[in-house]
Design a protein that fits this description.
Mean pLDDT: 90
Number of domains: 4
Oligomer: single chain
Number of helices: 21
Bound molecules: adenosine-5'-triphosphate, magnesium ion
Number of strands: 11
Helix content: 40-55%
Strand order of the largest sheet: 3-4-5-2-1-8-9
Shape: elongated
Low-confidence stretches: 244-257
């Protein structure tokens, strides 16, 4: 097989190890993706060299996972994980091995890997080592555990979630044996740290088929067995809601999981998450609970919740406006600017991108209003274009964007600070956002000064 650019760049790392008398191969995801002619995310290398040798052979290394035999080699500005051939044993509590043992043969190393498609290696000359039929499984589109699926899932229960991720990502079927073992051992997922599960979920959502991954997760039954229970809305309501919605709205004319497949058209992973939570019918509180459980940072969770909350404010007004059939809708405009002020420009822009990609979410809002939503062709995009233009023309949506600061006002008025200052700045911000005042420093200072002269009351 021909080496692609990423592997060719990494070739000198393999060659240097070989020059020192060791074996070295590309391994895992990079070989699978090369066989599939997909772009590589990263290049992992396996070698017979023990970690202390790897560290001496390469001048720039980071001892990333020395305990497990992994050294990060920095070569020509790129990083490669170089892992000594190893076997794993003494899995404790159905997760991660407590003991790893270095071995000299590649095949033992491949044997510890999860799926046949991930247990292939490639030598420097492009030849592929594939002892478990990974290439054939790729051709046939079958995801299969290396060896005995029952044992593999009992060793590390996270592999069940990974099975779903790879099946969705590569549109593969899960082999009967692997699927049955997954169904048998799903309870073992309770032993796996939520952080590891969260990281797999995140890869599913950022992957090529997020809606398929979500459907597979629901079908697998795994969601019920996490160490920390996931929000009820996610576990139980998702399927029920979607079925109900499909037969009660215009969406029932579309096949199967229609609507949410637009999620894959969103390039931002967090916008995909927000869209998915909305499609499931989760509130921002329930979504926040989910993000906490899967260990998203609070900054990330807050950003995501803001977009979800925003939909709860805008979904109904948009439907109402569509029903009125009026793009120049003053009420909708006011709602929109208020929402932009409340949630910020960035969340508002995210919400718009989500509505363009997954208009189906408005079906949900319509359903909650007990209204059938059957928009005239082009009506929705005209309305979204209009909201988009309005967002662009908002001069300031936060105090940071305002052309004057609290310090400016205090200097100008020579008054001690107090609650009046925040109120004054908020009033100015609102007036600027609604286009009633320009976001111009001199003009705003002038207005503040004039207002003091006339007693400091009245609206802008
Ligand atoms: P991706 O392209 O999504 O990163 P990947 O196959 O490279 O997929 P990684 O999680 O980066 O997945 O792992 C690299 C390799 O390590 C896998 O291809 C597999 O051979 C092995 N591996 C990773 N996690 C496990 C696990 N839990 N059990 C067994 N083998 C694993
Ligand atoms: Mg990888």
């Amino acid at each position: 097989m021909l080496l692609n650019k990423a592997l060719t760049d990494a070739l000198p790392v393999l060659q240097l190890l070989e020059q020192h008398g060791y074996e070295a191969v590309f391994v895992g995801g990079c070989v699978r993706d090369t066989v599939m002619e997909r772009a590589l995310k990263d290049v992992d290398i396996a070698t017979s060299a023990p970690p202390d040798q790897v560290v001496t052979i390469f001048p720039h290394t980071i001892p990333t996972g020395l305990k497990h035999g992994t050294v990060t080699v920095i070569y020509e500005g790129r990083t490669y994980e170089v892992t000594t051939y190893r076997t794993e044993s003494a899995y404790e509590n159905f997760r991660r091995p407590v003991k790893v043992e270095y071995v000299s043969d590649l095949e033992s190393d491949l044997l510890r890997r999860d799926f046949t498609i991930n247990a292939m290696a490639m030598r420097a000359d492009g030849s592929i080592i594939d002892p478990f039929g990974g290439q054939e499984d790729l051709t046939r589109g079958i995801l299969r555990c290396v060896g005995d699926a029952d044992a593999r899932f009992q060793e590390d229960a996270l592999r069940m979630v990974r099975a779903v991720r790879f099946a969705a990502e590569f549109r593969m079927r899960i082999s009967i044996g692997t699927w049955r073992a997954l169904r048998r051992h799903q309870g073992l997922l309770a032993h796996v740290a939520m952080e590891r599960i969260g990281s797999e979920f995140d890869k599913m959502i950022s992957g090529a088929n997020p809606q398929r991954a979500a459907a597979w997760m629901a079908a697998s039954g795994l969601l019920k067995h996490t160490k920390q229970p996931l929000p009820d809305a996610l576990v139980r309501t998702a399927d029920r809601k979607r079925k109900k919605m499909r037969c009660r709205t215009a969406a029932c004319k579309r096949p199967d999981v229609s609507g949410v497949e637009g999620i894959a058209g969103l390039s931002d992973t967090d916008e995909r998450w927000a869209a998915l939570c909305l499609a499931i019918g989760m509130t921002h509180e329930e979504s926040g609970e989910l993000f906490d459980i899967i260990r998203f940072s609070s900054a990330r969770s807050n950003r995501l919740q803001s977009v979800i909350r925003l939909h709860n404010h805008m979904g109904r007004p948009v439907i109402a406006s569509l029903k009125r059939g009026n793009v120049e809708d003053g009420q909708l405009h006011r709602d929109w600017i208020n929402v932009i002020l409340q949630e910020g420009k960035s969340s508002s822009a995210s919400w718009l991108r989500i509505m363009y990609a997954v208009p189906f979410l408005l079906d949900l809002a319509a359903m909650e209003m007990e209204k059938e939503y059957v928009p005239v062709d082009g009506q929705l995009s005209a309305l979204l274009d209009k909201l988009s233009d309005e967002l662009q023309s908002v001069q300031a949506a936060s105090l940071k964007e305002l052309a004057i600061s609290g310090a400016d006002v205090l200097r100008l008025l020579r008054k001690p600070a107090g609650p009046w200052l925040g109120q004054l700045l908020c009033d100015i911000l609102r007036a600027v956002a609604f286009g009633d005042l320009p976001n111009d420093r001199n003009r705003l200072l002038q207005i503040v000064s004039d207002r003091r002269k006339c007693g400091g009351s009245g609206t802008f």
